[in-house]
Specification:
TIM Barrel, alpha/beta
Length: 317
């Protein structure tokens, strides 16, 4: 099982020197990957609507200043040499298909093949209204079509595509990504459409357990979700073994209430021994990687959290 951590590209730890240091410290500690999130703009974060908390409120005092995802990823690629760079997740409709495909290919080339493209259709309508030119209600269809366009551009000598939302013909698209046929695609989301997208397009399914509409916060719920993924992958004509499972943890330890609504214990609640047991259980379920939020109130606290999770918890799995 691989281990990643979220690199904060918003808030007090997102200054250039802090970002570079946190990425380099994670690399030196032996983390396999880091993750970066995607928001271009935010509305009033005091208004409920966040899907990954019980109340619908943002988990912390969400900073409204933030760096653009792909630009920040390029910066971090230049500051590191080994650690993999995971987009967690790229909101696919945010950027026109051809431009996004080119930016992603460029990052993969310049990072020497370290990019992992986590993708999602998005959830924040106010942001869509400000940023995206395609309709919010059609974001799932847009995402699927753009993914097909990406693959055409990344794999064909003369790329052609005739879709509803993007069209092009006989394009020369060079350089192609270093990773062939393209960087791994981790499909985020927990809903039925997201899981079907993972079954069709994904190298991995990349859920968050705390989505209040599609909870995967206990071992039975996650096991059922993985079983559903396997079934959908087979129905899509693919080998279920070709789609791995990566699990994203937003909170852990005593920040998580122990009792879930299905009567089971919440994953990653409790003390270190509980979390170690959960990691072992997820590994036995076939989860191949997990990443955690480790941000502290400042750079030093974040580094301490990174080191503690890696050396005190994960090392005992």
């Amino acid at each position: 099982m691989q281990l990643g951590f979220n690199l904060p590209i918003s808030g007090p730890n997102s200054a250039p020197r802090s970002l570079a240091r946190l990425a380099q410290e994670g690399e030196a500690m032996g983390y396999d990957y880091l993750t970066l999130t995607d928001h271009v703009v935010l509305p009033d974060v005091g208004s409920p609507g966040y899907p990954y908390s019980e109340s619908g409120e943002f988990i912390a005092n969400a900073p409204t200043e933030r760096h653009e995802l792909l630009t920040a990823t390029s910066f971090i690629a230049a500051k590191t040499s080994r650690i993999r760079l995971v987009l967690a997740v790229l909101v696919v409709p945010h950027r026109p298909a051809v431009l996004a495909a080119k930016m992603l290919s460029t990052i993969d080339v310049l990072s020497e093949g370290r990019l992992v493209i986590g993708i999602g259709a998005g959830w924040l309508k106010a942001e869509f209204d400000a940023v995206v030119t395609t309709p919010f209600a059609e974001r799932g269809a847009v995402t699927d079509e753009y993914l097909e366009a990406f693959r055409a551009l990344w794999t064909r000598e003369r790329a052609r595509f005739d879709g509803r939302y993007t069209k092009f013909a006989d394009l020369v698209f060079l350089p192609r990504p270093v990773q062939q046929p393209h960087p791994p695609i981790w499909v985020g989301g927990e809903s039925g459409p997201s899981m079907r997208r993972a079954a069709r397009f994904g190298n991995a399914w990349y859920p968050i357990g705390s989505n209040n509409k599609h909870l995967l916060d206990t071992l039975p719920r996650l096991a059922a979700g993985i079983a559903r993924l396997r079934k959908l992958t087979a129905e899509a004509g693919r080998d279920p073994a070709d789609v791995s499972v990566v699990y994203r943890v937003k909170r852990y330890g005593h920040a998580v209430a122990p009792a879930a609504s299905d009567g089971e214990r919440r994953l990653f609640s409790g003390d270190d021994a509980d979390i170690i047991a959960d990691l072992r259980a997820l590994r036995d379920l076939g989860v191949t990687a997990i990443d955690v939020e480790v941000e502290g109130h400042d750079e030093a606290a974040t580094i301490d959290n990174m080191r503690r999770f890696k050396d005190t918890i994960f090392a005992r799995v």
